[in-house]
Design a protein that fits this description.
Elements: H1 7-12, E1 64-68, H2 73-83, E2 87-92, H3 113-116, E3 122-126, H4 132-144, E4 147-150, H5 156-159, H6 164-170, E5 175-180, H7 194-200, H8 224-244, E6 249-253, H9 254-261, H10 263-271, H11 281-284, E7 306-310, E8 321-325, H12 331-338, H13 352-355, H14 359-370, H15 375-384, E9 389-391, H16 395-400, H17 402-407, E10 410-413, E11 421-424, H18 447-454, H19 459-467, H20 476-480
Parallel strand pairs: 1-2, 1-4, 2-3, 4-5, 5-6
Antiparallel strand pairs: 7-8, 8-9, 10-11
Bound molecules: oxidized coenzyme A.
Oxidized coenzyme A (CAO) binds next to helix 2, helix 5 and strand 5.
């Protein structure tokens, strides 16, 4: 919006030649607000807490999330926000809920681990969003919440009647955050799951061995990766709202999220134009490069050559391997540790450039040494010399690792219908916002308390809404009809 020019600005814009004799203007003695690096004025900064760190609430206390997410990408995002203290109200379809409640079920009659591990610290309310009384409840929730997070198929939220214009009118401060498979463009209407995103975002094409087909990774970079991206977008939008007073749309396309994580491969695509990628082992093997970045097997992602090597017991243990990096500054230590001291000065081995064409043979020689030791023994010996190595840890070993339990990265959670189970806690540790992991909600567990405490409905109104059927599963006969 164009602003009216101030007197001072008008005077400034006059041509220099016509400028009157310089007048000394006495500025008011009022102290200007000191601008801090974050753009807030000092006077707006809250008084510093004198409570001990970790005992003055949580980072997102007071933030309320209308959580319309399901499956993995969206729930990852809202679970993180809940761990940071947001009140996350998960809206689920009556009788059904998030589809993952019933997927990959391991304990009959109980919510699956798929669901419980992605929905900690949330509350659940069941609402049929296509029922007029359901929409009545949703309208109130929109007014009472700060953020709506959803990862429905493209268009589903609009079809419910919850368009941006509608939400923005009801609550102009609301942030509407969405995960979609693709951003605007030819594929924007497509439904997308994890592996589709891995393929469309450049991960599959660059993962696996050169001789084999593209591979998807075990890390859920499409779902959980995009959920992480979305959480950052939401927190940034909340921060901006402190200044602007208004909400905004936040969109994370899974293709974009995966590509962001594959950034180094787009780097390599451009480097191909100026020559072969010398750090890829196919260079040393004399195999020509094509038009696109190839799959690099277990080559190191950075400029330091690395490979996965067998360790003692590999014949029977599929995880008896170690990732070994021949970092240039510790090359001399590597030569000593594997028993090839002459390689330290031999011009055929002494420099990274000389080693590049023979990396395969060098790693084979290092493997002769690693195969004499367990992966943990290799790690101990290498760490003494600052040689970077990574033991291939199985999920069993990770689950049993005491240090991960001690930090709360792996936590044991109790659940009323399934009993104790292991989960991954908040991987982001904050000294003044400590995360406790509480169990996921049962379907609709908090419906009454949300209607009463959050939305302030009176008993007769609650009865009216409930009797309408908007919060419960349709009866069998209705379903069949
Ligand atoms: N009350 C009434 N209806 C509800 C409801 C509620 N509380 N919650 C959901 N629904 C309805 C939706 O309105 C939608 O109905 P319409 O198609 O008639 O508009 C319907 O449930 C199904 O929603 P959906 O299309 O999102 O679900 P799906 O199982 O068919 O698709 C998925 C799942 C993940 C492919 C799709 O949601 C999607 O592409 N999401 C975006 C990308 C994404 O997040 N993918 C990652 C998922 S994790 O691997």
């Amino acid at each position: 919006m164009a602003k009216k020019k101030s007197k001072k600005a008008k005077a400034k814009s006059k041509p220099a030649a016509k400028k009157p004799a310089r007048k000394v203007v006495k500025l008011a003695a009022k102290k200007p607000a000191v601008k801090k690096a974050n753009g807030n004025s000092k006077s707006a900064a809250p008084k510093m807490s004198n409570k001990p760190y970790g005992l003055d609430g949580k980072a997102l206390d007071g933030v309320r999330i209308l959580d319309f997410t399901h499956v993995q990408s969206g729930p990852t995002c809202t679970q993180l926000l809940a761990w940071f203290g947001a009140d996350v109200i998960k809206v689920e379809r009556p009788g059904v809920g998030d589809i993952t409640r019933g997927q990959l079920v391991d304990v009959k009659g109980a919510d699956s681990l798929y669901f419980t591990m992605l929905n900690h610290n949330k509350r659940s309310i069941t609402i049929d969003s296509k029922h007029p009384q359901g929409m009545r409840v949703l309208n109130e929730l929109i007014k009472k919440c700060d953020v709506l997070v959803e990862n429905f198929a493209p268009g589903a939220l609009d079809r419910m009647g919850l368009t941006w214009d509608y939400i923005n009118k009801l609550n102009p401060r609301m942030i509407v955050a969405s995960v979609k498979g693709f951003g605007p463009g030819p594929y924007e209407d497509c439904k997308v799951y994890e592996n589709v995103a891995q393929c469309a975002g450049g991960s599959a094409s660059t993962t696996g061995f050169r001789e084999g087909p593209p591979l998807v990774t075990g890390a859920q970079i499409g779902d959980s990766g995009t959920g992480l991206h979305l959480a950052l977008g939401i927190v940034s939008a909340l921060f901006q709202r402190n200044r602007t007073g208004r909400g905004q749309k936040v969109l994370c396309a899974m293709q974009d999220g995966v590509l962001n994580l594959c950034r180094v491969k787009l780097r390599d695509q451009q480097r191909l134009k100026v020559g072969p990628l010398a750090e890829y082992s196919q260079f040393g093997e004399g195999v020509a490069f094509g038009a696109a970045v190839p799959r690099a097997g277990n080559d190191s992602g950075g400029g330091q050559p690395g490979w996965i090597l067998k360790c003692k017991g590999w014949e029977t243990d599929p995880d008896a391997y170690i990732y070994f990096i021949t970092q240039a500054p510790v090359w001399q230590a590597i030569c000593d540790i594997i028993g090839e001291p002459t390689w330290k000065t031999d011009p055929e081995y002494a420099t990274p450039r000389a080693r590049l064409p023979k990396l395969k043979a060098i790693f084979r020689r290092i493997e002769d040494w690693t195969m004499t030791l367990t992966k943990f023994e290799v790690m101990t010996q290498c760490n003494e010399h600052d040689i970077p190595v990574g033991p291939i840890l199985s999920m069993k070993e990770i689950a049993e690792e005491p240090s991960l339990r001690a930090t709360g990265t792996v936590v044991e959670v109790d659940h009323p219908t399934r009993g104790k189970y292991l989960s991954v806690g908040n991987p982001i540790k904050m000294s003044d916002s400590v995360s406790e992991v509480t169990r996921s909600p049962l379907l609709g567990e908090h419906t009454d308390e949300i209607l009463t405490d959050v939305l302030g409905f009176k008993a007769n109104e609650i009865a009216e809404i409930k009797n309408s059927g908007a919060l419960s599963a349709p009866k069998k006969e209705e379903k069949a009809a």
